[in-house]
Every structure is written in structure tokens, then in C-alpha cells.
Amino acid sequence: MHPLNPLQYYQFFKDFTLVAKAFLETDILTGAIVESYSYRLVMILQEMVDASYPYIGDLNQLRELLPNSSIIKKIISTTRQLQRSATNSLHPMNQRPAVLPGTIAPRITYVPKNSSIFEKSGNEIPWRGVNIKYTQNEIFVDVIERIDYIVGSSKSPLLNSHAQFNSSGSAYYDLLTVSNDRSMVVRKAHPPVSANIQGQIVFSSSLSEMPQIELILDPARHNLGIPSFHKCVDLGSWLSDHHTLEFIPPDEKFTLMEYSINLLEELGKNNFYNSTGLVEADMTTGLGIAKNMFEIRLQIKIMHTVECVDNLKLDIYLPRDYGYTIKVVRITQGSVELKESGRYEWIFDKQTPTGLSCVLRGEIRSDEQEEADVTDDPLFDATKAKVVKPRFVRLSYENKGCVPSGI
């Protein structure tokens, strides 16, 4: 006897929660709901568990096996009516109609149709219902990706006095290259600490009968690693050609495939720089006489399939040492608001057009300097000024019409 995978039970509870919510028509299972509909949950468990082991977990299969809510209510109502009728019609034994001599009392036996559980549930394709009919046959495919991109701050010292445009380094660029005549400093992209894309293909099917779907992917030269698939996918087709997915879809919205792309493996390639998203950010710190000013530039790329980016915002986290505030010196788009102690938010409209270049220049002041300019102090020495800069900034946005990987 082979031991069962412990994760099988975890998956069972996940499936049971999904099935229970679907049958009880609720988004959340509360104690009151479980108590009120315990009889339905017992019926579900009787089908999903066999001899204490997980047995059936497919929602479509269980829909074929279990009666819906209206049928159960009708059964309960009919049972109560029969119970009242039986109570009111009880008679003494001698008043019951006798069976005539030489005759046999009829016995009615109900033989269920399609008594086999597998025939009744259409078990050959357990994730899909049987006899599905649609007037309009259509499918919808969405590719959804989330890119996480972390860039460390620059720690390289200044190479020469010509690097005045970036007096203490940029969070997104590093001064690493100087031309032969020492007259020009070339900006070189600072390598990211982490860069990966988490993606999924969501499929929604409204097709009749048992459709055979072949979906061909263009991975855009990315290495998708070892993706995870819905059980409906024929793995043989994918293993023979990492571009083709063949499957019979469930009759519902489901996640067909999940994948992960490690962009660090593609560092230095063209597809890496094309996969870093629509919005680029660059932060320069240590500006001004007191070296307490910073400038953040956002560049929203132009993409013909994308009209705008949604929910664009940038969080600015200040040092924890003292109570610092930000005084906005220049801003070309949006507004800056204090959200909590030590965190400001550069907020844009809900929809921001592509092709924009936005600039925010701010000055970081401590509480005692909030109303006074430190440079007005006659004892102020600019040569001994300490750089005050944000700890880090965090950019987030959404867009429709394209994905970072280009799949």
C-alpha cells in the first residue's frame, strides 16, 4: 500500500470549500450557513469521500450527482406533506382495506435510471458536464501577468567631477562607464536585485458537447520553466512541443496554465528590456546645497494596444531615524499626500495616458526644519552636509491590452 501524499488532503479541503460555496450559493462559509445547511454538506461529503479517502472533487461531476437546491426543498416539502397525511389517516388494523383472498398485494419498486455513478456523472471527462448546449459557441482567453522588479540603490562613488547631473547616484542607474577622453559619463543600467513575472492563462468556455481545443502559444523567446496546468490539458502535446496546448475545457471559467519567468536569466538580452513593464522610474538623490532633495522621473511608454495605465501610484518611504516630511518643490502630474508617518504617496488619476513623462522634485525636512530653511543658518557648512534620501520607493500600476512578457 502506497502512502498518500499529505497535500492530497489539503487539496481536498480546498475543493470541498469551492464545492460547498457553489452549492450553497455563497461567497463565504460562516458558522450560521454551515449549521443551516448541514444536510447539504453531508450529502456533498458522501459523494466526495469514499472509505475515508478523497474520491470525487470535480464540481461539474458533483453537479450531475447531487440534486440542486430547488429539488431538495421540494423533496423536504413533499416529505412533510406525506408525514402529515400519514398521521391524519392512521386507522385501526381492522379498518384497513383487506387484501382479497387469492390475490397478492402489489409491491412498487423504484429502479433508478443510470444507476451507475460513473454513467450518471459522465466520468469519462469528470471536469466537464454532459449534454451541454449553447446557442452561441464562444471562448474567451485572458493572459494575466504580474511583474515584480526590484532595483538596488547605487553605491558606486563618483567617477569624476563631470558627473554633476547625479551627485550621489540614482536608484535605477549606476555610473560605471567613462568615455576615453574623460569628458562624458555614460549611464549604465543598474542590474536588478530581483525580476520575475508570474503569469496565468484564464480560459472561459461556452461551447457545446465535447469540444477539442488546440491553443498555440508564442512565448516571445522566454523560458517558461515548468508550468502548472489544469487537469484537462493533454501533457503529451506540451512535452512534444512547448507551444501547443490540447484540451477539452470545463464548462466554466478556469485557470488553464500558470507559469513563472525569471528575468534575471535574460539579463542583457533584448527581451529582458522589453519585459520590464510600461512605466520606467528613475530616482536621483542628494540634490541641492543641503543634499536633502531628490527627483523622481516616471516615463510611461507608448504601446499601440494600450491607451492608458490604471491606478498608477508611487509610495515614497522616508528614513525612520527622525520625523521627516516632504516639501514638494516641483510636480508636473498628480499630487503628493501623506498616508502615514514616514510614507508619502504620489497619486495620479485613475487612468493616466501613455507617452507621458512625469517629474517630482521634493525636499526632505526634519520636524525642526519644517518651517525653516537649513541653508539660512550662518553656521551651515555645505561641505559637511549629510545626504538625506528616501529609503526606497515602490511603484505600482495596472494596464490592459498587453502583458510584460509579450506572450
TrEMBL record:
Whose protein is this, by species? Answer: Eeniella nana
Residue ranges of domain MHD in the record:
171-407
Q: Which terms does the UniProt entry file under GO BP? A: intracellular protein transport; vesicle-mediated transport
A Pfam family of this chain = Adap_comp_sub
Enumerate the PROSITE patterns for this protein. Answer: MHD (PS51072)
- Return the GO cellular component terms, semicolon-separated: clathrin adaptor complex; endomembrane system
Q: Which InterPro entries match?
A: Adaptor_comp_med_subunit (IPR050431), AP2_Mu_C_sf (IPR036168), Clathrin_mu (IPR001392), MHD (IPR028565)
The compartments listed are: Endomembrane system
What's this protein's name? MHD domain-containing protein
The record's similarity note reads: Belongs to the adaptor complexes medium subunit family.
